[in-house]
Input
Amino acid sequence: MSWPMVSPLRQRMIDDIRARKLGRHSLRSHIHSCKRFAAFLKRSPETATADDVRRFQLTLIEEEGLTICNRNRVMTGVKFLLRVTMRRHDLAAEIYHLKEPQKVPVVLSGDEVKRILLMAPSRKARTMLTISYGCGLRAGEVTRLTVGDIDSAQNIIRVVQGKGRKDRNVMLPPDVLALLREWWRERSAWDDAGMPSAERWIFPGNGRRKPITPRQFSRLFREAVKAAGIRKPGLTLHSLRHSFATHLLERGTDIRIIQALLGHDKLETTARYTRVATGMISAVESPLAQLSQPGRKMRNRKDKSNEGPPA
Output
């Protein structure tokens, strides 16, 4: 069996990425970005000039039509190559990132969430979707849950090495625990026979001793959304996590508690849900309401004019 040739430069970059313990997604993204840069140059990136870097950035937007988010992702990989692997700080200084547009997260109503959960294609899918909404977990965090992560004595779920390689605890609602127990009785024990009980995947995938993938999980979500008849632009599996945070905020939950449950480093990241908390927004009284009560305003002014001079 022949293996594709890897250039010395790419191998050095792969070693640099692994030495810094970056995830496999970062590895794949950085390598793809640098292959794109090399294809633009039609030669090795080791021969790149400052003008090449400037033209490449212009081409990504004007000719290839990349979104700002994707354009910034490509340049992050190229910057790693230039600054870390090639030690070309002069070329890395030519890279700039564009400000990404701040979009309002897509949030589902409580009724829409209920319909999606009811229309889940299987008990396994319903359990996973319920955890996503009921506990605010990311797709990858749900798929990687093991038996040892469920602590029914303390009513918590331990999220091990989530985004940013951080551990955290989230609540374990009684409804989620009941669904987990129902699914466990239905789940096949042959998928991971011989593994220690605490290390067994709660949601095994097609491969032996491997969990279901986030992509497969996302497909189950789309099936449930279609069956529920919900047509909302920009709706993704991550919308369940957005809805979890927004609905907690509307119920008056302290924003710092929501921050801890979501695993956010910065409070500003969590605060964006105030922009989509429709219950809170609709409860705010507009100043327009004051214009329809001119009599009250006039009386207030008259009362003030009759007041005596300050002592």
Strands lie at 150-151, 156-159, 168-171. The domain at 110-279 is CATH 1.10.443.10 (hpI Integrase; Chain A). The chain has a mean pLDDT of 88.
